[in-house]
Amino acid sequence: MTYRVGIDIGGTFTDFALLKSDEVILHKNLSTPEDRSLGVMEGLGKLAGKEGLELGDFLGKCEAIVHGTTVADNTLIEMNGALTGLITTEGFRDEIEYRRGYKEDIWDVRLAPPKQITPRRRRLTVPERILHDGSVHVPLDEDALREACRKLRLQNVEAVAISFLFSFVNPEHERRAKEIVTQEIQNAYISASHEVLPRAPEYDRTSTTVVNAYVGPRVTGYLEKLVQRLVEGGYQNQLMVMQASGGVMTKEYIDGAPIRVLASGPAGGVIGSAHTGTAKGCPDLLCVDMGGTSYDMSLVVDGQAPAEAGWNMHHRYLIGVPMVKVETLGAGGGSICHVNAGALEVGPKSAGSEPGPICYGRGGTEPTVTDALVMLGILSTDEGFAGGSFSLSKKGVTEAFQKIADEMGHGDAEQAAFDCWRVVNANMSQGVRRTTAGKGIDPKDLVMLAYGGNGPAFAAIQAEDLGITRVLVPKASPTFSALGTLVANPTIDEERSYIASANALDIDRIRQLWNDLSTRARKFFTDAHFKADDIRVNYQLNMRYPGQNFSLSLDYMTDVPLGDLSFIGDDFGARAIALFNQRHMAEYAHIREHEVPEISGVRLAAHVVTPSPKASGGFTPGGKAPVAAKARRANLGTGFAQVPVYLGKDLEPGMEVPSPSIIEETFTTIVVYPGWKAQVDDAGDYQLVKA
Fold first, then answer.
1. pTM of the shown model
2. What region holds the Hydantoinase/oxoprolinase N-terminal domain (predicted)?
């Protein structure tokens, strides 16, 4: 027997999904913010115990451990990354602050600029200049570079970003600068733009390189510590790390650009959603993940969650690497409820796992969404929470909500908890509307797939607000992002700049760029012990009309062997134009018939297919009527009443649970709100249907 383990670290819980043949075993334990690798090892020990094994024997039988992490995201959220300096071309010191003139909300006159990772005193320039064709116009002034290093050294920088003009065409100056910085600032983490994001435009590349330098030491330090603990524990294979692109790859690959793990946890959930939705005949999905700290929204269209490279604003910084689009709100089970200037607000501040919500009994004093669910009777205080790892308590919860009621000047503690429930619901629904409207999609046309520990508790009422009539809730929803890491394939997704009119292409240059990307991908895959013959590739082009700021990525050739460029022929440019016009029409509903588009870059997405959990099941009615295990006083939006409670372990495929009711699974609670019904499909998953 061999195992595959998926891990996702959240702000509150660390989730595990163990794939054992076709069986999936779930586990959750509280995250350990002081050293997140401790929480990982604790959870692996619990999984080993469930299999009747010692940790060493269990790890020895693991053929793959796949890990999604929020270390990079937390670093940006908390702004506690490495003390970072920037060395750039003379005259371009402030480009990182100009942000291409971008402002998140042009109507908000009070919106402050983002906190600078590299304030001006740590942004230094040196004389050097490489032109767009790669020729050297001004040689690198090494004396000036050493003086810049001296100034950064006096400021005790821990990381240095290097971004020179047109280094993606000719990296000669950046390579030499990296050598000198290594000599002058010992033990500094160095992030060079030609290694992190070797493409135009300038701001995108500089921003991505700076963020990579800022989060790099935290990410690599954490992964090194985790790998060391795994090896000491008996794990014999390479750790695979989830990427923002929706693929996984080895730690050695991630070390070159740690920024690729940004939003890797949420990406796992989206990939898992696409896999599950397609299997259940629902290719168009609104994916919502409500955990302990945040609420993540994303879209799956035609069964795909494509990774978009380019304008990915993440925590107010531009990240140019491919990322699965996920919008995040500070609305989770740990989001703190408070009164601000007489108005009730929920989040974005979170109680996290330490001290956590008041009901955890770990010293929390501020009421949270989870506490509100306890007050409303949606969550039980009678039995174990999170798989029995601990129990919830109402001690102190009533007093905290009574304080909110007093500050609001009306109602009692239960009314205050209900108001918090309404506010967080409204926040999430409005977030979904913003996301779908920005893409020109009506949520009524989608099926909602809800996961995370708290997603199923709110799913049906949110769906009703949005006009959605069907909700999928996987049985594995509480650890769905961890399960999604096991669905994701090992993937390398990179691009290189090449700008030319589509009817005047240097075919040999395009072939060379794709060959270079193929060689790089082959090295990392073979180092990870994947067979070269198993590597499949999508060859893509970035194209735009002249004058457009942004490019569209389109598939030129898909699912071909790595390095096979036989498809490049005399009709390459004409076919590229036809494909681009087709994509532009689909995306924007028009084409410029008398303009010739241009290519702005080439992209290669290589992957290897690995075993993944099976997903299947439609609903076949005819099961016997379920029997409620108990009832409790609860408010499901229409006032308090005795509500029947069903246990997930008692429900079988074909059963239908009427409303109003509550279904208690091991790690989550599913609420069947009035006007809905829950059905158990043939795979044991749930679907909520408007009655």
1. 0.87
2. 4-184
